[in-house]
Amino acid sequence: MKTLREAKVGDTVTVAKLHGEGPLKRRIMDMGITKGTQLYIRKVAPLGDPIEISVRGYELSLRRADVDIIEIA
Predict the structure, then answer these.
(1) 35-52 residue pLDDT tens
(2) pTM (2 decimals)?
């Protein structure tokens, strides 16, 4: 299982599955990150937190703790 945390800057990945449950999973899905969505890793902050991605035509910053539930293909 490879998570979004392991993706490198410049990678385009596809969401395979969202793990977890409750409010965190719902918030991630509300931001447009669902199974089959393409994500482009734009930037990673110097200390590694947050990660900036492009999803569905907009930029989004996510905490590294939140990206652990996003499994990629």
Answers:
(1) 999 999 999 988 878 999
(2) 0.85
How many C-beta atoms lie closer than 10 Å to residue 62's C-beta?
20
**Per-residue model confidence (pLDDT) at position 30:** 92
Phi/psi of residue 23, each to 5°?
A: -60, -35
Distance CA 51, CA 20 (A): 19
Contact 41, 7 (CB under 8 A): yes
Domains of the chain by start residue, with CATH: 2-72 (2.30.30.90)
Residue entry with tokens 């939140």? 66
How far is the C-alpha of 5 from the C-alpha of 9, rounded, in Å? 11
